[in-house]
From TrEMBL, chain A:
UniProt xrefs under NCBIfam families: PRK07231.1
Record-linked PANTHER family: SHORT-CHAIN DEHYDROGENASES/REDUCTASES FAMILY MEMBER (PTHR42760)
Taxonomic source organism: Sediminivirga luteola
Name listed for the protein in its UniProt record: 2,5-dichloro-2,5-cyclohexadiene-1,4-diol dehydrogenase
Record Pfam families: adh_short_C2 (PF13561)
Family: Belongs to the short-chain dehydrogenases/reductases (SDR) family.
TrEMBL record, chain B:
Organism annotation: Sediminivirga luteola
InterPro entries for this protein: KR_dom, NAD(P)-bd_dom_sf, Sc_DH/Rdtase_CS, SDR_fam
Keyword field: Oxidoreductase
Keyword Nucleus: no
Molecular function via GO: oxidoreductase activity, acting on the CH-OH group of donors, NAD or NADP as acceptor
Protein name per its UniProtKB record: 2,5-dichloro-2,5-cyclohexadiene-1,4-diol dehydrogenase
Ketoreductase domain sequence ranges: 7-182
């Protein structure tokens, strides 16, 4: 279990769900993992946990500075923190729209902007942004979520080609329907619709997504940049 | 036979470039066009086009425009969200204010436009919404970080609105232009333009009328079974 030995990784939204799955899997592969979340939490498997609201640009600067001070490097950034909101366009409020965009989209921008100089200084790095099948295909409702997840896919490709010569790779993971507190909070109706449309016929787990994140963080994927990796039980292929 | 006879259409970004060509093409096909823009517009010289001042990022301005169009025409058949701004900064040089400005116009503006016309379209159980994305909404460009983000959002917002309102007779599609000769690209450095045109299999850029023709198609009844898609008009740029 040494596929990430020597690498320092920041994972956002690490207190639960997919982020917790990714952070523990990366730690198990030997990475020094700093798990960040807006919720306070403790995770003994991780090197550290930090309070971070991804929409707060100053807090980002502080977290990255702290990581550099402690470890001298930053190799991996996983922008996983995310929220959803059920509203359709015609009934949605601008404030709610802004809230979802600021966490899921602007938060990813702030994370990349804070991490890129540190990665560049260290000769390279791997950025993994958690988009969604909703960034590529649509379901009814959750309008702002779709907007932000579509943005995350193109932002990832943008960062990939802008920073390729600096040795920084950027890729997006598009999870399908994954069992987490987020999906537990959705209506049974919505969840059933996703499951019905999943060819493998089961929900995914945070560790399914973590497997992809470890791969994209490791040197096994050294020639992979700018891609979308669905982890969706075949949802997008159908 | 005119293809958009009597269709009440709001076109944003209609002062110049693509939006202006869309407004003219729609009027020529018989539509009533409300040409909206934040910048001053010439007198259109076409009685089917009336101009309005609109900042697409201003939700109240959208509400009053929609209200006025409903009062005067009683319907909105088509919305073309063509207003847009670009920013060239790469992530590490992009300020939060620059990021926000591009998102406000290119992304939130599209959301606010759709939200403003949906009640009218839902009431009549008919409508066609056309959102201008970009090749940079599909693939990455070097620099242009905020623009890339916002245009990706436009693609997925369009699919989302398409599936949400499909049963109500409302179609929503995105148009994906490649390099088009407009005031926007005129302002870019020649070498940047040459690079994109050089990567365009057709060997030349497009004209605003090329995009307008795609919008006419998507607005009209020929496209009655077309929703949630991206119509690429790019001289082959994305195919290679
Ligand atoms: N669960 C799914 O089916 C699914 C599918 C596709 C994509 N995703 C994406 O995967 C990511 C994780 O989702 P999840 O299902 O584990 O969700 P979750 O709600 O279970 O966990 C999200 C975590 O992010 C944290 N968070 C929220 N706002 C934050 C902020 N402003 N700053 C810092 N942390 C914040 C939360 O505290 C929480 O710990 C999200 O980006 C989500 O959109 C999930
Ligand atoms: N020209 C291209 O090569 C190209 C390629 C891909 C996509 N596009 C997209 O097509 C659309 C039109 O582009 P263009 O090349 O004609 O640009 P342009 O700069 O020539 O014209 C854009 C118009 O939008 C208006 N506008 C800007 N901000 C506004 C606001 N807040 N509210 C209302 N109006 C506003 C401007 O005043 C102008 O009239 C944009 O969405 C652009 O991103 C253009």
């Amino acid at each position: 279990m040494t596929r990430l030995t020597g690498k320092v990784a920041i994972v956002t939204g690490a207190s639960r769900g997919i982020g917790a799955g990714i952070a523990t899997a990366m730690a198990a592969e030997g990475a020094t993992v700093i798990g960040c979340d807006v919720l306070g939490f403790s995770a003994p498997a991780l090197a550290a946990t930090e309070a971070l609201d991804v929409t707060d640009e100053d807090a980002w600067a502080q977290v990255v500075a702290k990581v550099l001070e402690r470890t001298g490097r930053l190799d991996v950034l996983v922008n996983n923190a995310g929220i959803t909101s059920p509203e359709s366009v015609h009934e949605s409020r601008l404030e709610e729209w802004r809230r979802v965009v600021s966490v899921n989209q602007t938060g990813v921008f702030f994370g990349m902007r804070a991490a890129i100089p540190a990665m560049e200084a260290g000769g390279g790095g791997a950025i993994i942004n958690i988009s969604s099948i909703c960034g590529a295909a649509a379901v009814p409702g959750i309008a702002a979520y779709h907007a932000a997840k579509g943005a995350v896919r193109t932002m990832t490709k943008n960062a990939a080609i802008t920073y390729a010569r600096q040795g920084i790779r950027a890729n997006a993971i598009l999870p399908g329907w994954i069992q987490t507190p987020m999906t537990a909070g959705q209506s049974a109706d919505v969840n059933d619709r996703f499951l019905d449309a999943t060819p493998l016929g089961r929900p995914g787990t945070p560790s399914d997504v973590a497997g992809a994140a470890v791969f994209l963080a490791s040197d096994e994927s050294a020639f992979i940049t700018g891609v979308d990796l669905p982890v969706d039980g075949g949802y997008l292929a159908a | 036979m005119r293809r958009l006879e009597g269709k009440v259409t709001i076109v944003t970004g209609a002062t110049m470039g693509i939006g202006r060509a869309v407004a003219k093409a729609f009027a020529a096909e018989g539509a009533w066009v409300i040409a909206a823009d934040i910048a001053d517009q010439d007198r259109p010289g076409d009685q089917k086009i009336e101009t309005r001042r609109l900042d697409v990022a201003d939700e109240e301005a959208w509400a009053s425009l929609a209200e006025e169009v409903m009062r005067r025409y009683g319907r909105v058949d088509v919305l073309v969200n063509a207003a847009g701004v670009i920013g060239y900064e790469p992530i590490h040089e992009l300020t939060t204010a620059q990021w926000q400005r591009v998102l406000d116009v290119d992304q939130t503006g599209v959301y606010l436009g759709m939200r403003a016309v949906l009640p009218a379209m839902r009431e009549r159980r008919a409508g066609s919404i056309i959102n201008l994305s970009s090749a940079w909404g599909v693939v990455g460009g070097v620099g242009v970080a905020a623009y890339n983000a916002a245009k990706g959002a436009v693609g997925s917002m369009s699919r989302n609105a398409a599936v949400t309102y499909a049963r109500e007779g409302i179609r929503v599609n995105a148009v994906v232009p490649g390099w088009i000769r407009t005031p926007l690209t005129d302002r870019q450095p020649a070498d940047a333009n040459e690079r994109v045109i050089g990567a365009t299999p057709a060997g030349h850029g497009g004209e605003p009328e090329d995009i307008a023709a795609g919008c006419v198609y998507l607005a009209g009844d020929d496209a009655r079974f077309v929703t949630g898609t991206e119509l690429v008009i790019d001289g082959g740029f994305l195919a290679v």
